[in-house]
């Protein structure tokens, strides 16, 4: 039973008996192995999730234990134009940014799927926007969007002479909204492109050969081979992308903090402003909870809408 | 001469079925290299701009008429010097490093054990535990930070980096577990059976056989966790209050952005220095990183 060739077998014989046997007892071993992960997730994820749901129905503030007040927080939010603004912008932000990320990311993935020199180097460089801390690249964007010293304005005004005045990127609502969306697309392209590239590489070249023998055009090959074959992976990547774009916080907090005039608040930044900065924990939690229905809907939509093909075939997952 | 001609003829013959006659250099240039060049330019420009700003003297930063903004005429280290000696930047870097290493270690231990139990010990209900851990990954930090803040206060960990070390595994463990389950799957079960027959205990098998074979997976998971915890923002913003205990991303935004006139040179130098550790770390292990990213998506 014991480990065979140890120098002092006499010492080692007794110890293994109960301790090692305990660790070989499967239920005990399974419990011990799962305990750290389940413990961490239970205490810092499941419990706060439940607590958040509870807080949303109370009037807790920082330093004061709240009372249960039913749906009052949500009733208040429904009359709050700032909340409606945040919902509106969250949906617009997610919609446009996801579309942009996937259109450009898919294109980049198709480009990277060709053969050319220094391909792996290029692939490594392209991921940079994704691995650098978002807040730090957001600061770079803030500087690029500076009203006075924006490099884009300089390019358009002084170099190309297309405009006569500087662009005021962050000074008024709609330009600010689109500037943030552009920064989000910039940050999201690498992830989408590299994930989809992995999907593209799994498509068998024989499918394209067969299609070309049948005289399919490049567009037809894309439409009837590439696109359908990519559906499952598109669905997964898009689900993730939508969830993390809708709940985005860093980019908006770093660049505009919800301004100008609260026009660029996402639900997450509004929740932070009310819950942590303003101290109204209950109301902040209610705003955070109000994201959940949108997330569930978006997830179901993108997952079942796009993954329908795989789902219908009843393929077992690998 | 004849060699090249022959070579191109062979290439033509190879390419013939899939392309038309004019599908050569120019078309390839327009369809692949030009858009690819634009993508790379746009994706990298903010970094170039960040880097060049951090070495520009203030006079050049604020005067585009006399100085070409795309280049530096007299580079200076003033901003970096200001950052390192007049602010708590080294302290922030140290805290961030500590938090990233601590939470990465914790998540690696927790998720290795969990992945081993789920994939190899195969108890009843193990697929459900795996699914549960996977679902935990879909819970975004934005809906957790408010209740988590109260939990952190309850535990007396508010304003302590330890809170971040304990909280970051909530988004690291699900990812790492999922990644490692994939790696463990690829290790032949026969190896473990042999060891069992030879009288090894389960823990010995994990330590002597499974883990050494799963090293690439552990490295991928480690790099991924390290970069994710280095980049984390919302928890660090909500749970840490005193200037000295902040992590780099939070500190730059809350401590360096002061007043109405932004010190763009110092801000960009701070961003550059804060990005460098992850960028260097990433460049050392880029293949592991890409494989873990794509592997996780394929799963």
UniProtKB/TrEMBL annotation, chain A:
Keyword Nucleus: no
Residue ranges annotated for the ABC transmembrane type-1 domain, each copy included: 87-304
GO CC, any one term: plasma membrane
Protein's UniProt keywords contain Transport: yes
First-listed, main subcellular location of the protein, grouped into a coarse class: membrane
Membrane topology, record value: Multi-pass membrane protein
SUPFAM superfamilies for the chain: MetI-like (SSF161098)
InterPro entries: MetI-like (IPR000515), MetI-like_sf (IPR035906)
Localization (cell): Cell membrane
Segments crossing the lipid bilayer: 28-47, 86-112, 124-145, 224-246, 285-306
Keyword annotations: Cell membrane, Membrane, Transmembrane, Transmembrane helix, Transport
Biological process annotations from GO: transmembrane transport
Record-stated family: Belongs to the binding-protein-dependent transport system permease family.
Protein name: Sugar ABC transporter permease
Organism in which the protein naturally occurs: Bradyrhizobium cytisi
From TrEMBL, chain B:
Record's GO cellular component terms: plasma membrane
Entry keyword annotation includes Nucleus: no
UniProt-listed GO biological process terms: transmembrane transport
Bilayer-spanning residue ranges: 30-52, 92-116, 128-156, 162-184, 205-227, 265-285
CDD domains, alphabetized: TM_PBP2
Domain ABC transmembrane type-1 per the UniProt entry, residue ranges: 93-285
Pfam family, one: BPD_transp_1
Cell location: Cell membrane
Membrane topology: Multi-pass membrane protein
Keyword annotations of the record: Cell membrane, Membrane, Transmembrane, Transmembrane helix, Transport
Family in the record: Belongs to the binding-protein-dependent transport system permease family.
Name of this protein: Carbohydrate ABC transporter permease
Organism: Bradyrhizobium cytisi
């Amino acid at each position: 039973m014991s480990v065979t060739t140890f120098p002092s077998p006499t010492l080692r014989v007794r110890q293994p008996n109960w301790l090692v046997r305990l660790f070989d007892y499967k239920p005990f071993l399974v419990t011990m192995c799962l305990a750290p992960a389940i413990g961490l997730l239970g205490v810092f994820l499941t419990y706060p999730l439940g607590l958040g749901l509870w807080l949303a129905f109370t009037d807790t503030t920082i330093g004061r234990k709240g009372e249960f007040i039913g749906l009052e927080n949500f009733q208040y939010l429904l009359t709050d134009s700032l909340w409606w603004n945040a919902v509106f912008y969250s949906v617009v932000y997610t919609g446009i940014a996801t579309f942009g990320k996937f259109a450009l990311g898919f294109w980049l993935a198709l480009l990277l799927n060709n053969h050319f020199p220094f391909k792996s180097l290029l692939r490594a460089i392209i991921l940079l926007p994704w691995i650098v801390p978002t807040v730090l690249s957001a600061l770079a964007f803030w500087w690029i969007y500076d009203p006075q010293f924006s490099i884009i304005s300089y390019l358009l005004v002084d170099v190309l002479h297309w405009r006569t005045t500087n662009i005021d990127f962050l000074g008024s609502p709609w330009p600010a909204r689109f500037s943030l969306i552009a920064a989000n697309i910039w940050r999201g392209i690498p992830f989408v492109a590299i994930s989809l590239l992995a999907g593209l590489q799994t498509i068998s070249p024989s499918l394209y050969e067969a299609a070309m023998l049948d005289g399919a055009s490049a567009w037809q090959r894309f439409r009837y081979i590439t696109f359908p074959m990519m559906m499952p992976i598109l669905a997964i990547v898009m689900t993730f992308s939508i969830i993390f774009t809708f709940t985005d916080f860093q980019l908006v907090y770093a660049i505009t903090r919800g301004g100008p005039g609260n026009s660029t608040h996402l639900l997450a930044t509004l929740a932070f402003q009310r819950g942590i900065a303003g101290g109204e924990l209950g109301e902040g939690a209610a705003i955070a909870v109000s994201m959940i229905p949108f997330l569930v809907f978006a997830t179901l939509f993108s997952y079942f809408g796009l993954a329908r093909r795989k789902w219908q075939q009843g393929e077992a997952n690998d | 001469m004849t060699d090249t001609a022959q070579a191109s003829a062979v290439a033509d013959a190879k390419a013939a079925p899939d392309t038309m006659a004019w599908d050569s250099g120019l078309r390839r240039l327009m369809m692949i290299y030009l858009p690819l060049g634009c993508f790379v330019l746009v994706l990298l420009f903010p970094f170039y701009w960040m880097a060049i700003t951090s070495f520009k003297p203030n006079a050049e930063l604020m005067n585009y008429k006399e100085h070409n903004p795309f280049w530096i005429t007299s580079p200076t280290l003033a901003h970096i010097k200001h950052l390192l000696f007049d602010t708590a930047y080294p302290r922030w870097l140290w805290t961030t490093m500590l938090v990233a290493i601590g939470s990465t270690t914790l998540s690696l231990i927790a998720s290795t054990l969990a992945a081993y139990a789920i994939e190899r010990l195969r108890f009843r209900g193990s697929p459900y535990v795996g699914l549960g851990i996977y679902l935990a990954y879909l819970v975004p930090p934005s809906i957790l930070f408010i209740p988590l803040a109260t939990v952190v206060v309850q535990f007396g960990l508010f304003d302590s980096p330890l809170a971040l070390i304990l909280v970051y595994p909530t988004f690291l463990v699900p990812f790492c577990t999922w990644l490692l389950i994939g790696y463990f799957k690829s290790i032949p079960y026969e190896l473990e059976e042999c060891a069992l027959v030879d009288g090894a205990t389960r823990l010995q098998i994990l330590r002597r056989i499974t883990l050494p074979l799963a090293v690439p997976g552990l490295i991928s998971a480690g790099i991924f966790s390290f970069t994710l915890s280095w980049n984390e923002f919302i928890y660090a913003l909500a749970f840490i209050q005193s200037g000295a205990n902040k992590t780099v991303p939070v500190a730059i935004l809350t401590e360096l952005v002061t007043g109405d006139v932004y010190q763009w040179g110092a801000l960009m130098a701070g961003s550059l220095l804060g990005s460098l550790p992850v960028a260097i770390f990433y460049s050392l292990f880029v293949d592991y990183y890409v494989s873990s990213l794509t592997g996780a998506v394929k799963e």
